[in-house]
Amino acid sequence: MRNILSGDVDFIKRINGSNFLGFVHSVFKRTFNIQCFDSGELFTIACRSIDNAPNTLIVDTENTSQWNIEVNDRVFVEDKILYISNKLALNISQAITRESLLPPYPNNEEFLLHNVRRARKYIDCQGKGGGIKKCPKPLNPFEAETCKMLEQRTKSLLNDLAMNRIDLAIKHAVSLVGLGPGLTPSGDDFLTGLFITFHMAHSPLFEHRSFCEKVTKKAKPLTNDISYSALKQASIGKVRESIISLVNSLLIGNEDDLILSLNKVLNIGSSSGTDLALGLVCGLEANIKAGGKLC
């Protein structure tokens, strides 16, 4: 029996209601994903070095490989305990519940704009290239062409958002899905960061937040299950804790707070963290432009 340290509030509610039946979808060193039979939705079991996220439970362990979890292992709930075949039992009784709550957009954008500019400069210097942020020298022609496509399509998307051309923006956003390297492709990570800026209450783009769900509806056949799951959660304003911390730092943090939060995000995956951070920064810039109060 292993204790769950913390977990997504809705996931824990499902377990408490003994309303979960599924199978192991994919296995990694520090996480494994399970898929629910009735909804097809993905859920994640992660070790304590991973931050809290939607549909995720954090287990008190350094890695998950010790349990020999395998793809297609049966997953079920019995007496409020989540079982992975006969290999692992997860107790949620002492878990701290977590909910993905984004802060509202500020009335005064001047401080936000200052921090957004600071964040962009830091990402330019410290972010990892190969996705949305170009490599100085792509390794091969395919990578060079992918970088070119990412640059052109993100630019078109952001121009459409700034000009309030939402239908065209949807088209260009969909063209990013599945594009780029990584288990979660760069285009998907960028959109994940972008989406959450639509869900900040009182933001200029808040009234257009259906944009995110419209893009996500077209995304499923264009990318893998894990990346689609992150997009789907972000499309309704749910995102991992490190991203929310970065949003808060951009809104109210000093330079030290901002750099600390940025580094936590930039260290996600290979280029995923950089792509997420750029999506967030670009989304905030798009909101500022759409609001028309600041240049």
How many beta strands in the DSSP annotation? 9
Mean pLDDT: 93
Rg: 19 Å
Q: Per the principal axes of the C-alpha atoms, what is the gross shape?
A: globular
Give the amount of beta strand, in percent. 15-25%
What profile does the largest beta sheet have? Answer: 8 strands, mixed, barrel
Descriptive tags:
alpha/beta, 10 helices, 45% helix, globular
Compact description:
With 295 residues, the chain is α/β, with parallel strands linked by helices.
What this model shows, in words?
The chain contains 10 helices and 9 strands. It has 295 residues and is an alpha/beta fold. It is globular and about 55 Å long. An 8-stranded mixed barrel has the order 1-5-4-3-2-6-7-8. Helix 5 packs parallel to helix 10, helix 8 packs antiparallel against helix 9 and helix 9 (255-266) packs across helix 10. The mean pLDDT is 93.
